[in-house]
Write a sequence for this structure.
């Protein structure tokens, strides 16, 4: 982990990109009265739009830590058709989609849980209890109106070229410091390892 406590290498961007694509496919299937079929990896982003949601003309409401600092609940989430959850859930994480969303009045019909942590007590999405996969990307959790959740836990694999190149570029600076195992990212990793071993 970096000095700021964040991961030095993560698949987040490409997971979000692929998750947005799958979420739009799920939404499109709903509009045709069905449930989304299988998804497959693409050769590269060149086969798709550069920034998926914007390129597809989807209006995006962006929320980050400042917008969610009040801790919820957030009924405005239910007033969007598609909700993409991209947070790392930790203790104290607010609930974005409560279990009652299945029966609440809502415009929400698709949840793309990019973070995909359905069994965690800290999950901010309380309407489903299991991951989906490439063969069955949508889990219908409510009807009239439909509410589908897509929660694929290996989203970066849908875009292997970009995911691998990006991850390698993020990791390379840390690999170049392998000669200094007592300091920097490697020293912090060792300290974290020791802390967890001591508690076993």
């Amino acid at each position: 982990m970096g000095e700021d406590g964040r991961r030095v290498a993560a698949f987040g961007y490409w997971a979000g990109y692929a998750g947005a694509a799958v979420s739009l496919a799920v939404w499109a299937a709903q509009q045709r009265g069905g449930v989304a079929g299988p998804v497959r990896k693409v050769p590269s982003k060149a086969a798709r739009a550069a920034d998926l949601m914007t390129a597809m003309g989807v209006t995006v409401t962006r929320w980050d830590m400042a917008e969610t600092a009040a801790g919820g609940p957030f009924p405005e989430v239910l007033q969007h058709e598609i909700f993409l959850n991209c947070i790392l859930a930790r203790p104290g994480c607010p609930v974005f989609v409560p279990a009652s969303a299945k029966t609440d009045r809502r415009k929400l019909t698709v949840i793309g849980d990019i973070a995909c942590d359905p069994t965690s007590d800290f999950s901010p999405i309380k309407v489903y209890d299991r991951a989906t996969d490439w063969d069955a990307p949508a889990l219908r959790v409510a009807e009239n109106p439909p509410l589908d959740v897509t929660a694929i836990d290996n989203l970066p694999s849908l875009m292997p070229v970009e995911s691998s190149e990006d991850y390698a570029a993020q990791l390379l600076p840390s690999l170049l410091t392998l000669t200094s195992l007592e300091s920097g990212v490697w020293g912090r990793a060792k300290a974290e390892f020791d802390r967890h071993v001591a508690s076993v």
User: Anything to note?
Assistant: Residues 12-160 form a domain with the Rossmann fold fold (CATH 3.40.50.720). DSSP finds five helices and four strands in the chain. The chain has a mean pLDDT of 89. Strands lie at 82-85, 110-113, 139-142, 147-150.
